Every structure is written in structure tokens, then in C-alpha cells.
Amino acid sequence: MGTWGTAIKSNDTSADTYADFFDLYNDGKEPNEIKNKLISENPNGTNDFWFALALALWETKSLSNDILEKIRGIVESESDLKLWKELDASESDIKKRKVVLDKFLAKLESEKAKPKARKRIVKKEPIFKKGTCLTFRLENGNYGGGLVLESDFETGFGYNLIVTTRINQVEKPTISDFKNCDVLVASFGHWKNEPKVTWYLPKRFKKEFSQLFENVGEIPIELNYTPNGSEIRASFSASWQNMIEPVNQQLEHEKTNGITKSFSINKLIKRKKWWQFG
């Protein structure tokens, strides 16, 4: 995930978490309900996840003692600063980050005068049609690929459900390549053999990410998915870079750990025939 500064929301994780919270808040959901939803979707949440969640809860006058204590523990133990050191951050940035975190904790320990007002939701449409095959460049110079499993026209958020594939080839992938590819199963970092399937918000795509992707065609998707459904375990994100970075990280991980077992894209796009049941 990208980090571009020392501020609380100056990284993809915090920015996405904060945006997801207020998308749901502006849609009428209660803060505690949103908190439980986001935590259930991020059981191994990073410091940046907890910081953004705490900030959103404080802004809506809903910050509970358990979340405040969690932030206090992170800040006072300086565990976040240690993580920055491990990631080779400069001494100057580490000092700035410490100032930011100390001020952030003090802010959370104060009481906001009134909760942030809800904004009127303007319904958005998804960027891509269901079945769209997207290709992008990887760090090794090859082409990768993501397949749009669903386009959300019901919630008003305009999500696209996209699965990242294991396509990694010199030539630009064709429709045939997408029909015969495997799903990217992540085993790097904290991931435990989980397919990379994500609901992407449209609002940052055109300005920040459109130049990264190319539409190379469409294939039929027989299955249907809903953002609040249980058809598949998927994360939510406003950062479309999340479709690309896991491929780079997984390929690097496999150089020393061997190839992680995957499965065919057909499991996510095709219905089973009657004779396949049983």
C-alpha cells in the first residue's frame, strides 16, 4: 500500500478506510454498525486502519473507549514508529510522524463539539461493464490482468467487483488468456492463501488510476455478486492500485517461497452444470 506523507490519512489504507466509513455514514448507517462492519472486513487491520477508523469515529462523536485505548497503546509504545524504521523511513520523517501521532492522540482524547454532518449521497455508476478484461503493466515489465466480475447499479456507490489474475506475460493478454487464466491467491505478508477479490469505488479512478489500465475486451460472467452478499469474500477499496501491487508482491514472494497453489477463473465466472453437482 502506498504512503505519501506522515499525516494520518497520507496512505492508501487510511484514505480507503476513512472514505469507506463516510460512504456508509452518508448513506444513513450508524457509526457503531459501520465500525463493526469495517473491523469484520479487516480482522488483521494495520495501524493505519485503526488510526483512520478512530478518526472517523471521533468526528462522528462515536469513539469508544476500547478503540481509544488501542490507539493510545500504539502511540505510547511507539510501535508505529518502529514499523516506519523497519521500512527504512528517514529519521526526519520518523520525527515528523511522532509529532503527528502525539497530536492525534491528544485530539482523540478531547471531545468534539458536534458530530460531522451527513452529506447527501449522489448515486454513482460503476466504471466498467461486467465481464471487462483489464490489463496493466507489472514491475517486471510484463502484462498482468484483472477481470470485472460484477457492476453494481443497486447501492448507489457504483462498485466494480474485480478479481486479480495470475496473468504475467510479455505479450498483451487476449480474451482467450483471460478465459484460461488462474486467480491470484495471495500468500505474501499477512495474507493466508486468499484470492484477491475487491469491490472498487469509482470516485478516484478517472483522476488517479485510469492511465494504469487498458480494456482489452469482455467475456461472459454467468454468476452474480452483490456488495453486501455472501457469495464471495471480498474487500472494499478506493485505490485501484490494489489490483496491481499484490501481483508484484506475490511474484517477489514466490521467488523464495515457491508458487502458491491457485485455481481456475472459471470457478468465479461459470455456473455448475446439473451433472456436476453431487
Textual characterization of the structure:
The C terminus is likely disordered. It is globular and about 60 Å long. The protein is an alpha+beta fold and 278 residues long. A hairpin with an 8-residue loop joins β2 and β3. Helices cover 38% and strands 13% of the residues. It has 10 helices and 8 strands. A 6-stranded mixed β-sheet has the order 7-1-2-3-6-8. A two-stranded antiparallel ribbon has the order 4-5. α1 packs across α2.
Q: How large, in whole angstroms, is the Cα Rg?
A: 20 Å
How many β-strands, per DSSP?
8
Q: Mind describing the biggest β-sheet? A: 6 strands, mixed
Please identify the structural class as seen in this structure: alpha+beta
Q: If helices are DSSP runs of H or I spanning 4 or more residues, what is the number of helices?
A: 10
- Low-pLDDT stretches are 274-278
State the end-to-end CA separation.
42 Å
Give the helices and strands as they follow along the chain.
Answer: HHHHHHEEEHEEEHEEHH
User: What is the arithmetic mean of pLDDT?
Assistant: 91
The shape, in one word, is globular
Q: Please, how many domains?
A: 2
Spatial arrangement of strands, main beta sheet = 7-1-2-3-6-8
Query: Beta-sheet strand percentage?
Result: 5-15%
Task: Estimate the helix proportion, in percent.
Answer: 25-40%
List keywords for this structure.
single chain; 278 residues; alpha+beta; 2 domains; 6-stranded mixed sheet; two-stranded antiparallel sheet; 8 strands; 38% helix
Provide a compact summary of the structure.
This protein has 278 residues and is α+β, with helices and mostly antiparallel strands. The protein has helices at residues 12-26, 31-41, 47-59, 65-77, 79-86, 91-109, 175-179, 205-209, 245-257, 266-269, and strands at 132-137, 143-151, 160-164, 185-186, 194-195, 197-200, 214-218, 235-237. The protein is globular, with a radius of gyration of 20 Å.
